[in-house]
Specification:
heterotrimer; A alpha+beta (about 90); B mainly alpha (about 250); C mainly alpha (about 325); A: alpha+beta; Ubiquitin-like (UB roll); 3-stranded antiparallel beta sheet; about 20% strand; B: about 250 residues; mainly alpha; Ferritin; about 65% helix
Amino acid sequence: MNNEWPLWEIFIRGQHGMSHRHVGSLHAPDAEMAIKNARDVYTRRNEGVSIWVVEANNITASSPSDKGPLYEPSESKVYRHPTFFDIPDEVGAM
Amino acid sequence: MDRDEAFLQFLLRMGDNTLILGHCVSEWCGHAPVLEEDIALANTALDMIGQTQMWLGLAGEIDGGKSADDIAFLRDAWDFRNVLLVEVPNGDFGRTLMRQFLFDAWHLIMLGRLMKSSDERVAAIAAKASKEVTYHLERSGDTVVGLGDGTDESHDRMQQALDYLWPYVGEMFSSDDVDAEMVAAGIAPNPADLRDEYDALVGRVLTAATLTIPESRFAHKGGRDGRMHTEHLGHLLTQMQWLQRAYPGATW
Amino acid sequence: MYAQMVKSAGTGVKSREEMSEQERVFQDKIDADIKIEPKDWMPDDYRATLIRQIGQHAHSEIVGQLPEGNWITRAPTLERKAILLAKVQDEAGHGLYLYCAAETLGVSRDEITEMLLDGRMKYSSIFNYPTLNWADIGAVGWLVDGAAIMNQVPLQRTSFGPYSRAMIRICKEESFHQRQGYDAIRKMAEGTPEQKKMAQDALNRLWYPSLMMFGPSDKESVHSAQSMAWKIKINTNDELRQKFVDQTVPQAEYLGLSIPDPDLKWNEERGHYDYTDPDWSEFFDVIKGNGPCNVDRLATRNKAWDDGAWVRDGLLAHARKKRARNLAAE
């Protein structure tokens, strides 16, 4: 049996109110130890307030060839972006 | 014994524990079983070095304005006041983690009491250290459970570590004149009063680790009053104090 | 550098005509500074070269813990001890980040570790030199980390995404390493005559090994050309070595220490210092395994790995039991 500890992807929320961000990976025997290891490895300089760990095996990634179909359609929906609309200066901040 | 002298002895006991244990744990840097553990052990050692600076810094202040470094590097073995548990050599990773766990459990309970100390400086140091030690205990406890309840080999090694270290546990709960003076001043608790809480905590973790606590309550002693250290402390000091001793007066 | 003499796989840089359609698209992305990510198509030679380079870099961080770790228990003050321990711990972290980057290319941490331990993969020659007095700790931070930073800063822009991200994190953390080293050796250069002697002794021993870190001159190397076309190597060895000398000479002067090179002098015309090349036969000896510490360094790493096997197995066995118990309880 392969006795290598599984690989975990680590996500850390840096400041209250921000989203968790992927910061890197590490090895750990289980999820609890992965959280502890993440604390020791990735928050040595006060970087985090909340940690998520996900076993790398459990991540499903889009494949690079999907890049076109997945993301290009949104390029044409420019109306989703606030700069699409002209608001008269007199109206003030919006 | 007057109160100032007792207070100094108490501070040396706290600071020497973290000084010596931090030193031993730092020896693992670069040699641990896996990178993640290497990094975690270094964090623990770093916390303990920081705690040492606070305890011995305060000790130096009331001892005629010495620095924490003067106290750490310029005393001989008989002046050290750490419990013997922290000066036994690292042994294998299992013994290091068992020693850490047995110390962390006492340390956290002790710091919890010291946070209510009548001396504000002591209470402040304890409050800071307590946050760090809460994590140390979580980590060392989990590792003791993981290795105790792991493979046959890891179980056996952890049981051996526990058997070897258990006789060093009792000293953390012995009381003397210094403690009586500290209790009277409301500065620190009577160590003997911490034993029940300790036994409950340690019992819970060691049971989860499928390990058996030795029946004998025999306790080695002599560290916290400096009457008799182990042979190991002298060797440790020859390394730790080498530069300060070989080049007196130099600044680094 | 930390990755010295990494041989690029393949036969050298291909012309556009020699490239397949896939290779052309790949090279266009690199030329346009678009990062290559693990799931993207990449030439086998690019993958193999990167594994070698990142692996060598990671191994250097891990073996590099040893010469500095040699002084943790002898650090002269509590603060110096904490700083050194934090620094050596950072090296472990950097090794970890880099191993993770290598894993995205399909080689597991255990596999790549085994390749270090049985000698199939190398680490930087510099870590095969001993640290003999406390000033060496200062000199390692000042010179060795200084040289490393010179190489790592441009590597933040390297073409492979995970490698680039690891380097960004490493550079951010590395910034205190060189400064603490300079600060430590400065204290000694300004200290007692004995301390000054230690500082000069450290510089004497570590100067040429530091210059060797950049690797031999690579003007003629096809491997370098390919790695530069792939943007996994950004500058030539000679460029970086010159930059290092130019930066370091005034720093040594400030300390009142002399660089052990009688022919070192400012060349007005070139706008650079002229310096003596290291003894490359010594370098190749060290690379072949005959440096002062090669055997001991590798033996130490092997011992840590072998002694740790029961711990890794034990904790994993516990995790599996716990999971089985949780499943049974559901």
